[in-house]
């Protein structure tokens, strides 16, 4: 196979993979990061040009962008730690570039030394420590590309860029309460959409193509959206103390932090359900007959998840949870009876029954019901006060 054929095949698979990733609306914080990064980069370029006289003060803009990015959901202490790590990495790169020739060996040694000093020696947090080798390599690449001999004016550019990045983050702080609400709402909405898609599909004949899509969507929700929600909610109370707008919402942020593990387990449970359906479809053939009772149960579960998060974001809506849970339990009882019938058929098959199919259906039903029950236990627990 020729290289061009390999490249074309890889590019085609990459495009197909990217097209399958579900797009999710950005939160206001994510939009704000883009705007603040652009503002910090422009101001840093302008100020560094005035102060140092460098024609292309790219390091100032680079440092400002990185600092804004690492500061957006961090506390002030964490933001300063990460900003210091960026400056350290850039300054180290500027000094090293005058002495060493870049090659695979020196790059490996520089990364090992810089990461070791930052994480093991200075004991910076892991996220901050990683900024040192990343910043260093970017700067080394920039200096090497432009064939410039670095001087202390480049160090000044770096410090100015970091200062401007921190200033932009402080002057225009991200609202942790808004970010937390939006990411939690987005997470719940996508988990519910996965369940609704599976629920609608199970009420008709369903295929491996459908289960692949359900599993992929559930995996993205479990991974990317859960991580974003955990990051947004994680240290919200600590960060809110530095934001005048958010201080009055500290108790609400506490509720979100306490509820986040339950929502994460819910997303994991939904992903397990999608994987079970995909595995069962592959074992039983290209398609499977409808499971209307289970489909309606999953749709009821989606409604309960929406009601739970709505109540979390607005406690006055708590009455909706009781109605949703009642409907969910009724749907579960129907599925329990169906699972019992399949179990009896697997144990004592009639003349027309396929024992292997009956056993597979019963095991699939039982595994899904176990996951639903686990999710219900979390959803029906009292809301954080």
Question: Can you offer a commentary on this structure?
Answer:
The chain has 2 domains: 28-171, no CATH class; 176-380, Methane Monooxygenase Hydroxylase, Chain G, domain 1 (Up-down Bundle), CATH 1.20.58.220. Mean pLDDT is 76; it is low at 1-7 and 12-19. Helices cover 80% and strands 1% of the residues. It has a two-stranded antiparallel ribbon with strand order 1-2. The chain has helices at 3-20, 28-52, 58-71, 76-96, 104-121, 126-129, 131-146, 152-171, 176-202, 208-234, 236-240, 250-284, 292-313, 319-347, 355-380; strands spanning 206-207, 287-288. Helix 2 (28-52) runs antiparallel to helix 8. It contains 15 helices and 2 strands. It is mainly α and 385 residues long.
């Amino acid at each position: 196979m020729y290289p061009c054929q390999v490249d074309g095949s890889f590019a085609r698979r990459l495009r197909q993979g990217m097209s399958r990733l579900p797009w999710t609306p950005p939160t206001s914080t994510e939009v704000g990061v883009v705007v603040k990064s652009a503002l910090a980069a422009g101001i840093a370029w302008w100020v560094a040009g005035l102060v140092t006289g460098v024609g292309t003060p790219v390091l100032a803009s680079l440092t400002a962008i990185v600092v804004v990015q690492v500061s957006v959901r961090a506390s002030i202490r964490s933001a300063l730690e990460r900003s210091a790590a960026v400056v350290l990495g850039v300054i180290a790169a500027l000094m090293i570039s005058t002495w060493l020739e870049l090659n695979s060996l020196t790059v490996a040694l520089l990364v090992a030394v810089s990461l070791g000093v930052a994480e093991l020696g200075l004991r910076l947090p892991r996220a901050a420590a990683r900024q040192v080798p990343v910043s260093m390599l970017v700067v080394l690449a920039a200096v090497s590309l432009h064939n410039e001999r670095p001087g202390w004016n480049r160090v000044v550019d770096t410090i100015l860029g970091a200062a401007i990045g921190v200033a932009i983050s402080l002057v225009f702080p991200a609202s942790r309460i808004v970010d937390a609400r939006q990411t939690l709402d987005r997470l719940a909405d996508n988990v519910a959409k996965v369940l609704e898609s599976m629920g609608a599909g199970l009420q008709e004949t369903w295929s491996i193509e459908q289960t692949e899509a359900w599993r992929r969507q559930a995996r993205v929700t479990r991974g990317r959206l859960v991580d974003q929600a955990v990051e947004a909610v994680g240290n919200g109370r600590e960060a809110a103390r530095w934001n005048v707008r958010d201080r009055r919402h500290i108790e609400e942020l506490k509720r979100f932090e306490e509820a986040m593990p339950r929502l994460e387990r819910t997303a994991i449970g939904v992903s397990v359900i999608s994987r079970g359906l995909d595995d069962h479809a592959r074992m039983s053939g290209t398609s499977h007959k409808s499971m209307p009772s289970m489909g309606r149960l999953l749709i009821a579960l989606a409604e309960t998840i929406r009601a739970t998060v709505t109540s979390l974001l607005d406690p006055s809506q708590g009455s909706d949870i009781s109605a949703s849970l009642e409907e969910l339990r009724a749907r579960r009882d129907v599925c329990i009876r169906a699972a019992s019938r399949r179990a009896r058929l697997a144990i004592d098959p009639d003349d027309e029954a396929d024992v292997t199919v009956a056993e597979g259906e019963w095991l699939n039903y039982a595994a899904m019901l176990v996951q639903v029950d686990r999710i219900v236990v979390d959803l029906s627990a009292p809301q954080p006060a």
